[in-house]
Design brief:
It contains 3 helices and 6 strands, in the order βββαββααβ. By secondary structure, the protein is an alpha+beta fold. It has a single domain, classed as GMP Synthetase, Chain A, domain 3 (2-Layer Sandwich), CATH 3.30.300. The strands form 2 sheets. It has a 3-stranded antiparallel beta sheet with strand order 1-2-3, with no helix packed on it. Strand 1 and strand 2 form a beta hairpin. The chain is elongated, with a radius of gyration of 17 Å. InterPro entries: KH_dom-like_a/b, OsmC/Ohr_fam, OsmC/Ohrsf. This is Osmotically inducible protein C.
Length: 130
């Protein structure tokens, strides 16, 4: 990966788009946003693959991230709460939580930060009718 300096941060061309990174959100994505997005995106992607293998019928999944930062320590991320809302058919909360635990163990981004950032995951299911 090659990052290039620009006036207000850095830029990388990833083949499917240019990514601007800056501490000023008027000039690009802020680094903490990318960190949280990487963790949430990886976790959701692995979780979705597991649900698909389990033949769990989901129509939609949204993830809300709640981030706690410490201003006394360079505003470092201390905690990320990921709340999943799963909409689907014949959902079993116990099975969903078990699959979420498996996803956590297989998400490279969560595993990379688990000793320095507390990741808390919760979920709620919404049963849809046909």
């Amino acid at each position: 990966m090659d990052f290039h300096m620009k006036e207000e941060g850095v830029r990388i061309d990833l083949g499917y788009g240019v990514l601007d990174i800056s501490s000023d959100d008027e000039h690009g994505y802020r680094p903490f946003q990318l960190m949280v997005a990487s963790i949430a995106g990886c976790s959701a992607s692995v979780f979705r693959k597991i649900l698909k293998k389990q033949r769990t019928e989901i129509a939609d999944m949204t993830i809300t991230a709640d981030v706690k930062r410490n201003p006394d320590e360079a505003n470092r991320i201390e905690r990320i709460g990921l709340h999943y809302v799963i909409k689907g058919y014949h959902l079993d909360d116990e099975k969903l939580y078990k699959n979420l635990a498996v996803a956590r163990k297989n998400c490279s981004m969560v595993r990379s930060v688990e000793d320095s950032i507390t990741i808390e995951e919760t979920l709620e299911s919404v049963e849809l009718s046909r």
